[in-house]
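Lab notes, practical 5.
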Amino acid sequence: MLEILTIEFMRNTLLAGVLVALGLAPLSVYVVLRRIVFVGAAVAEISSAGVALAVLFQVEPFAVALVLTLLTFLGFSRAADSPRLPLEALIGMLYAGGSAAAVLLIVKAPRGEGEILNVLFGNILTVPQPLLWAMAATFAVVALLQFVASKEFLIAAYDPDMARALGISVNLWNTIFYVALGVAVAIAIRAVGALMTFTMLVAPGASALCFVRGLSGAFTIATVIGVVATVAGVFASFWLDFPTGPTIVAILAATFALSYGYAAMRGA
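Output from the prediction step:
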């Protein structure tokens, strides 16, 4: 059973998956509460367009993708409270625009197709050691920020009107949250691809909120779901010879289906 741990690239795969789960699963609770579950999909397309642009001009893909991801999330932070433009409209247009830009740029940079596919579908099996260290540092900072500013993040997400009444600057904390989310998403997409990143931004939080009525335990349960699904997916993919990322995604989707059924049965 533990023979997987004797293989270096599988140890790196397991570590990369667990780091992404620890980094994104707690954030998924905020994503669900803020009703921005499709932000991950839109940002994934923007990131893909950034990689295609970087390949076209022969510069570092991750740096370009990171800048575009941060700018996109800053745009979300500014639009979150806009009375004129629904956030869903912005998400939809960014998704469409990012998709179109990625396709058009790929046409001009045919040698970059392999890198684009890695971003879209993930390449968790080949995460290098330097990226693992970068992921650990990034997610540690994001986790510390969530711990220090948990009250501000939560009330700004769940009840912005109450936050304003308490003197909390909703715009400021929205900006801080979206910047932190943008950095976490950018490095996660670089490591495991858009599909797993998007799923990890939604499924653990949605599942946790189905299991519990209050918010106090939702973050812990979401983190446990993300880590357990990741570990189970890595082992299952090794034993069954399945692609690792989609296997983890399938387990997360099954977990959400079970949690949703549980919530429906108890009338939540």
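Observations recorded by the TA: The CA atoms of residues 70 and 179 lie 6 Å apart. The chain is about 80% helix and 0% strand.
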